[in-house]
Amino acid sequence: MRTLLPVLLLSVFCALVAWQCEVQQSFAEGERLYKANCANCHMDDGVGLGGLIPPLAGSDYLTTHRDALPCMLRKGLEGPIVVNGKTYNEKMPGIPTLTPIQATNLLNYLNQAWGNQNGLYRLDEVTNAMEKCASFN
Amino acid sequence: MKNILFLALALSVWAACAPSPSGPLPILGERDVVNGDTIYPTIPDFAFVDQDSQVVTNATFAGKIYVVDFFFVHCPTICPKVKANGLRVYQKYKNDARVGMLSHSIDTKNDTVAALKRHAQKLGIEATKWHLVTGDNDAIYGIADNYFSVATVNPDVPGGFDHSGRLILVDQNRHVRSFCDGTDAKEVDRFMLDIDRLLAEQYGKH
User: Count of domains in chain B?
Assistant: First the structure.
């Protein structure tokens, strides 16, 4: 028993480290996807651009449209939207090749970057949303 | 002796690489010498129409220095970043009548005066300070060369137009004096210092 306890503690510790690593890697992947696909318009710091491009940093839209976001990333968005009380009406292109794993990492980046503190997405939740989205074709 | 040589070498390398934060900015481009006079490249005459339907010519910027770029409204790539950095320049020199700004649309078919007006309103900019212009397609693509900028139609790139996201600084004598990558905030910081240097050179210290 005496020898078992340190082993147990060690394995819990390793599991924690591994989990933390995975979270960090997902965040880095999300950041990479953001820089490649979103930052040109929404800017590196998520502030958007004047009345043209809505902010993602401190954006209420991320919480009010949580369920619709996975689909929007893939399909894009057209027509007026209201973000933090301000109306925006520019077309956003989608990323048709985005996989559910990539979408999850990207969404979790958006929801945790720049001081955002929105709940994390689970892969199954994003996969479901994107499957429904595909049937809208 | 060896030490002195090394020192001289080190000094010359330092002199060549160190940024010179004061003194006049160079006049960019290839110069000609005609009858002993040096001829510097200059921006040719132009006439475009801005978001308020006003004709913008060289005379619009008489007695001013101005910042130039090329863009288009429905640009899915670098334009928003260049515009965001352009806005920083705009904010800094908003109340300085010696500085003007000129953005050329390279999508003259879609970027009508009305489209430019709408774009300007959404950016929150004044036409008297920052002119967003459209005009004859060939004239705009032609003058891009004079500003050392690239503007080409390319159906293979997102948005259909290929262009450099440069910001270009032109002095009162129509000479290009500095430029930067308008997508890079740090480069734009340096560019704004160049604007200050040019102001000091052409208008004296205030």
Answer: 1
Burial A30-40 (b: 16+ CB within 10 A, else e): bbebbeebbbb
- Inter-chain residue contact B80 with A52, CB threshold 8 Å: yes
The parts of chain A modelled with pLDDT lower than 50 are 137
How many contacts (CB atoms, under 8 Å) link A and B?
A: 31
Taking contacts as CB-CB distances below 8 angstroms, the residues of chain B near A76 are none
Domain count for chain A: 1
pTM given for the model = 0.79
Do A93 and B123 make contact, defined as CB atoms within 8 angstroms? no
Shortest distance between the Cα of B111 and any Cα of chain A, in A, equals 15
CATH of the domain at A115: 1.10.760.10
Q: How far is B11 from chain A (nearest CA, A)?
A: 39
User: Is B67 inside any structural domain?
Assistant: yes
Instruction: Report d(CA B104, CA B116) in Å as an integer.
Output: 10
| Predicted-assembly ipTM surpassing the 0.85 threshold | no
Provide the residue range defining the domain that includes A53.
Answer: 32-134
- Measured between alpha carbons, how far is residue B72 from residues B38, B110, B162 in Å? 36, 9, 10
